[in-house]
Predict the structure.
Amino acid sequence: MEPRKAEKKTYNYRIVVCAVLVITIMVLLVLCFLLPNQIDLKSNELDYGDTWTSVSGSLIDIADMDAGEYGEHFTMHKRLPREDANARSLCFISEDVYFTIYINGQVVYDFHPDSPGILGSSYGSYAHVVGLPVVSDFMNLSVDVDVIYANRPGQFINVSLMDGEVFMLQLLRRDIVSTIVLSMIFMAAMCIFILGMMGRNLRNYRVEIVAAATYLFLASFAVLSEMPILRISLGNPAVLNFFRYFCLMLLPFPLLVYLTYVIGYHRTQWPLCVGILCLANVVICVLSTLLHSYDFVQLVNITQILFLITYVSLTIYILLGTIRKKVRSRRDYVPPYAFLVFVALSAVDAVRYIRGTQQNPNGSLYMTGFSIFAVCAIWHEVKTIALMTNKGIYAEVMEELAYKDNLTGLLNRQAFNRAMTDLAESKTNKDYTFLMVDMNFLKRVNDGMGHAEGDRYLKTLAKIIAQSFTGLNDRNYRIGGDEFFAILEGAPDTPLNRAHMEAFFKGIDRVNEEHGPFGPDETPLSAATGMALFRPQQDDPMEAMKKADQQMYARKTEMKKEVPWQSR
């Protein structure tokens, strides 16, 4: 087997092993929460969601308290026998209602959260555990209810008498799998976002990657904010509800940007139009809430319309992209089709919600569809990042090879020409020193010992140049057969540049002392140098190079008159 094929096979084997381990751990983790619980979480529980009455004695449907039917302010009652109330707590979830609970005429619990005006009136849903006192007879329970919205019914759900800790455990256990999945999507989105913003060599894919990460980040947080674990942990459901609606208002824009990029319609202006509409929606909702006209919940229909427009337009784009074969590769079909599955499952949940067969529009099918789409999008973008990174590394290697001199390891003439062009266009106020270096006696070494010895002669001088001008290796060039060039920062007479030149000449002397002369003619290592000042925006780099070259040739003429093996 060829080495490259063997390496690739080993690489693929490691990926498969890692993937199997991760999937196994995730499956075991989910099974831990799906297996039957050894603790009886329903013990000592009594359902108290029925037979609540108004002052007049009529029954009240606490799961659908319409202000048009009961009024915006009303009181409801219930009589609890001693054997039901003692050693239990009143546990329930409220939504879109404020209330005060009385037992035998005494206030035992008040829920009227005082939140800043920008947050609006809604707090979403929140779990309550109200401890009940020990009584010797019946307990008269009454609740003063304030329905927040006249056109939006409030509700109490899961009303029961039970142990408060068991009630909270039930809530956490009910959504634990969804919470784990959403948390993983949330963290993966953050990682992809960071890689998209800071990763190298992503080129035109950067927008796609960042848009995908932004959508998954906002969407997972919006759904995660409905989970009991966050609402109980933060203790301020109004803030969480505000951020949830804020995320929902922004979601259509990154979703459109991401999928139009994937299916080949990234040049369309439609995502920008939807983005402007999303921004306008945010401004309208914020101003309306601050002015106490309407708040986010009452204006949610605008957001729903934007979602409908986004879903319909994306479905059309996906179908057109498939028909016209605008998708770049086969793997790019995965996120769009996963999105269509997500839309279909969400539509089924929406129909169930409208028909009243489920309480939450984001039911199990919605969660399943979103998870499928999120996993496909994450896989797609991780694959894209990996491919573009590999291509970028390959391009960097090839560019390095294209600009490097094969013999000496310094930069070549092509890199030198690019550097001169960059300096000619530079707007910096820094001064530079152009250093021209020309090797002496190369022809003598080639003729006397052959070109192999001449190459060693060149490589030795190149090594001294690279070592002498420390930190400037990317500005050391071999521009001809025995001609070298270096670009130093600062004027020629600066202490640093004088130190560089001293190190250069000492390096030549050290080689001559340690290794002796080259060849049978005892030819020493020797080089002539010339320097010139270059000031960007004032001087022509080629003219400065010409001055350095003239100075170098003048020094070369002088050296020919001196002892041949003297280095300067």
Remarks:
- The CA atoms of residues 408 and 428 lie 30 Å apart.
- The mean pLDDT is 84.
